[in-house]
Amino acid sequence: MKRNLILPFLIISFLAANTAFVNATPGELTKSYSEEYDITPDGTTTISNRHGKTEIKTWSQNKVKIDVTVTVEGKNKEVTQRMLDAINVDFDHSGSKVSAETRIDNMRNWNNGNNTKMEINYIVYLPATNHLRVRHSHGRVSVDDMQAGVEIDMRHADLKAGNFNGDSKIDMAHGRGSIGNTGNLKLDLAHSELHAGQVGSSDINIAHSTFEASDAGNITSSSAHSHLLLGNIGGFTSNNSSHDQISILAAKSVRVNCQHSSVRIKEGADKVEARMHHGSFQSGLSSQFSEVDIQGEHTDFEFRISGNPKFKMEATSEHGGINVPDGMNVNYRVEDGARKTIKGYFGADTDEAMFKASLHHGNLRVGMH
Fold first, then answer.
1. CB within 10 Å: which end of the chain, N or C, has fewer?
2. Mean local confidence (pLDDT), 216-223
3. Do 293 and 155 have their domain in common?
4. What are the φ/ψ torsions at residue 13 (nearest 5 degrees)?
5. Neighbours of 152 (CB within 10 A)
6. 0.85 cut: is pTM over it?
7. Cβ atoms within 10 Å, residue 111
8. What is the rounded CA–CA span in Å between residue 278 and residue 68?
9. Residue 303 lies in a domain
């Protein structure tokens, strides 16, 4: 009789011990959504997500398919379930528009020391001809090649994208990313890094960031505490640059206004206008350059001219030096205390190309190569 009582007692004790172990182990709860809508080929798809991944894939159907998986993990099952219930996805659609947005209710009241974690992942299929808008924070975004316009707004997230045949608008803070080729680009970067292939005309506003493009049309920028690494571009205009490093492989025209920045143009430019304060400037010039107009304070300038140029020069420097190319015809040279002025011409006394310089506490060096 005693043996019969001992066995059930052992079984109950074993089950109780295992139940306690399961409750102590982090639990995972999931739920999913799947919606599919018709859309016009040139329609607009808008996706807004956070705390997870958003994958944008293209297909040949005039439909948008959105698959969402929500995963919540935590030690307390009741709290975990409450968190899962608080995460929802709002869908909307018409003939030319489809949207999906992650909605999280009462997020501040969740954790309470329960070490809960969540992940919300989207996989979206849409026509490549759709206009795409993506908003994402805290996670990763990937986008296939798109043929129409693309707008991406990201915070604390990383981006990997293909080619955008249309124009694109990217606003990124505290992230890293890469895109292929794109049409015209409107770019805002803060504490971020973005690498691009060939881009069209671009308007960029960056701070504490790095932007790289292999080729581009005309670029207009405002920047601070940033790195710009540009390949072959049509033209570069910096409306305001502070504490930057700007490196350009080749540009037909350059116009910069910089403070505490360095500018480097490797290959010959046709036109240069520079206003520099407490920085440095180096540039190649083509043999057919039309104009150089530089003003600097506490800045050294260096130019390397290719081929057989013909140009006039007027250069003045206070508390600095002026070095002109060998073979230059100098017809006016005056040194008055710390002020030096040189006027002359190289190749021919022509009005077709003009080199003007006005420097304070800076040096000018012009050479041939």
1. N
2. 98
3. no
4. -65, -40
5. 24
6. yes
7. 13
8. 53
9. yes
Give Cα 124 to chain centroid, integer Å.
23
How many angstroms separate the CA atoms of 236 and 151, rounded?
A: 24
pLDDT tens for 259-311 read: 999 999 999 899 999 999 999 999 999 999 999 999 999 999 999 999 889 99
82 is in which domain, residue-wise?
29-183
Q: Distance between CA atoms of 246 and 230, rounded to whole angstroms? A: 8
Task: Give the residue from 160, 183, 206 where a domain finishes.
Answer: 183
Mapped onto helix, strand or coil, the DSSP state of residue 327 is coil
Q: Do 175 and 61 share a structural domain?
A: yes
Q: What SS3 state is found at 223?
A: strand
Overall number of domains in the chain: 2
Residue count (the chain): 369
* Higher pLDDT among residues 40 and 350, named by residue: 40
Dihedral angle sign, alpha carbons of residues 304, 308, 311, 315: positive
- Spatial separation of the C-alpha atoms in residues 310 and 298, rounded to whole Å: 29
Burial of 212 (0-12, 13-18, 19+ CB in 10 A): middle
111 alpha carbon, distance to own chain's centre: 34
Which residues fall within 8 angstroms of residue 272, CB to CB, at 6 or more apart? 253, 254, 255, 265, 283, 285, 289, 291, 292, 293, 294
Whether 54 contacts 68, CB under 8 Å: no
User: Is 246 part of a structural domain of the chain?
Assistant: no
Whole-number Å distance between alpha carbons of 310 and 287: 8
pLDDT digits (tens, 9 = 90+) for 171-200: 999 999 999 999 999 999 999 999 999 999
